[in-house]
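does this look right to u?? magnesium ion version
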Amino acid sequence: MRKIIHIDMDAFFAAVEERENPALKSQPLVIGGRPEGRGVVATANYIARTYGIHSAMSCAKAYRLCPQAVFVKPRIALYRDVSKDMMDVLKSFSDLIEPLSLDEAYLDVTENKHGEPSATRLATLIKSRIVEATGLTASAGVAPNKFLAKIASDMNKPDGLTTIAPHQIADFLQTLSVGKVPGVGKVTERKMHGLKIFTIGDLQKCSESQLTRDFGKTGAWFYSIARGVDERPVKPHRLAKSVGVEETFPSDLECRVELSEQLSLLCTRLANRLERKGVLGTTYTLKVTFNNFRKITRSRTISEYRSEADALFDIYQTLLLELGEDQPAIRLLGVSVSKLNNQENQDKNGGSSSGSSIRTGLPEQLELPFPTY
Ligand code: TTP
Ligand code: MG
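got this back:
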């Protein structure tokens, strides 16, 4: 039986800003775009959440819900530094750490550097070490696997510590809403409700073949977690070498204006992804598939990090224009950034080798047994 801890910092970006400026602590605080702009909320402190504000909501809506809120632009470089301090604390407990984002990680503490048999006691210690190192609180979930540990860490936020011991799993699952399961988004939740599956207890009554029929490959995953089984190991080295987005268009793009528009949308998505992952890079690659299926890539390395959508657009638009006028219509466009700024790997690679890559932390979708996590 493994002992897994999931750590998730509380209102992370907002908590860092409050630490830097304690006057913000007593006010509703939104980290994201301008209230009058078209941006979205990255996160909000717990006071702002009482007004219904949450991540990914438009800033315009957040403003309507709480006009007196303070809106602060994210400072990703700062959050990365705090994240590193937090991850360093985790490393002092176990080498088996899997970061999921800047503020979240799994630890396998079955064997740990403190020789402590109680994972709950370890989680208490980890939480207080994080406060010492960062001045911020985290919530912890303790369980025999990743799926349960992640649910547990979310149960008593902020500053929570929840343990689901092996003998508690069956009861815990009976009444757990399916919407709480990592991987069940709004669409799947609605579909499950349509099938009269509201709790994991309901899910347990479905056969594996029924779930596979209704939910495809993810059905097998649902069958297994309904029984509290999740064998996924904590993977300590999840390295991404690049961050990118691409789009295959419903109809091929011929005209420059259309191409610029689509490129601009891709650059906005790329900027968001870079921000979410908290990484920056110096090599910018444009990928194009023409309607005759010829594929090309064009790259440019520059000495500075660019992460704003507009700046990214200028780079990729230049690469696109350099292809010349005389090209077939375009079926697919992709933009990516590589040579990412990961200190750990730069250290290993001497700082500049082409293999330089980053432990981004965020889940690589393809590695997971279900598509929507
Ligand atoms: P979360 O851990 O999901 O949220 P949180 O730490 O702000 O709040 P909680 O106490 O509920 O854990 O995400 C961590 C950070 O990632 C968050 O502070 C901001 C960023 N983020 C985005 O930029 N966009 C998003 O849609 C989400 C969900 C998070
Ligand atoms: Mg968090």
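The mean pLDDT is 89. idk if thats expected tbh
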